[in-house]
Amino acid sequence: MSLIFLICSQVFGLALGLIKSLVLPIFLSIEDFAFWQIYLLYTGYIAVFSFGFNDGLLVRYGKYDFNKLPLNLVGRSIKYFMFLIIALTSFIILISLLIPYNDKTLLFIFITLNIPLVVLNGIFLFLLQSTNQIKKYSVYSVIDKFIMIITIFVFIYLDIKNIYVIIMVDMISRFIQIILMYIEFHKLFKSEEDNQSTRKIISEIQKNISRGSYILITNLIGMLLFGYGLFVIERFMSLKDYSLFSLGISTTNILLLFINAVSIVVFPYLSRLENNQVFSKVTQINFLTTHFSIFICNIYIIIVFILENYLEKYSDLLIFLPFIFLSVVLQIKFNIILYPTIKLLNKEKIIFKINLRLLILSIIFTSLSVVYYHSLLYAAITMYIVLYLRNYVLGKLISKDTKDTKDIKKVKYLELLSHIIFITIVLFFENKFYLYTIYSIFILIIDAKKIVLRGKFI
After folding, report:
1. pTM score > 0.70 for this model?
2. Is the pLDDT reported for residue 51 higher than 70?
């Protein structure tokens, strides 16, 4: 029931995200939309200022119900940690005010002000996730999106196009979300008599950061595998080019927001299983995720229809959009099954090494694509290849711990074949959409019995 509730709420969040991603580029000029995307790009990486504290909470308390947490210790450690984050934010703003003013200075001050908001928001959402409060997570994770969408439509009606006003509304919506979650977690912050020494609280913060730092760095590198191209394009190409590439990522990333919500239940679910059950479940989820990824590629039809009919000024991105879209599809499998399994196996250091090597590869070839060739197409192809290699290596690593290697190999080859067919149809066939839809339905029909059986097994 919790999973169904989560999926329903995230479908709602998906619709809100779709509206935001597609309405703003219609409403704003290309330059203002580029500024909005730069704001989103950098706020997306602000979670690095949690220093792994959030991830440490998730891993250390992933098997606990909320009432079984050491509430006083966790609550006071959050307070102490947030004091440090606010002090750090103030220092960064002070430094930015000393730097000569330019057209992006105010933008980066707003981005910096998001640091405590994003970090505390992440702490509360991770607590809901780690204590398996999926229904509450479902509600709180879409509140800010709902507020933002309502405001955008009001702005359209009033013809308010100031990008900084829109950014302030985004921050206010996140602040409201935090206030509501603070009320939810009031037990953590009750003014009880302090029975925890400062040394013990600092030790708790250190344990969370120590346990979560590898996960954080791994996540950061994984994000850079997907987003490094945006940083290079923002620095070395025009605002129009940046708008094109970022719109391609944001429109396809909406799908990822929905998938991330589903993936949230996977780690707590797997961590509560007996050791002899884990890998059979992993195999089943891997099979279902691959088939879901094949079918979900049909959403590309909707995205192209909207671009061709309502966003003609961004039509140039259709040249490289298929590779960006498949990169997002690869992220689906990574988020739902590969990464949760790696965390369960406590192999964060291994995935860190893999991601780091692939990031170096990405930096070299993406930089060449953008700086030397000035090609958004080459940058998109590089991103796809790097993400495919990551999934391939991690899949091979996990398969060593599972018994059903034959099934895993079959699924791996099916995924690669489907990607080749998708790219071939989209780039070279006139009736591209009908052909791929027929192919995806054909695959589902062939494996229908297995899909149903494995769905019941989970």
Report:
1. yes
2. yes
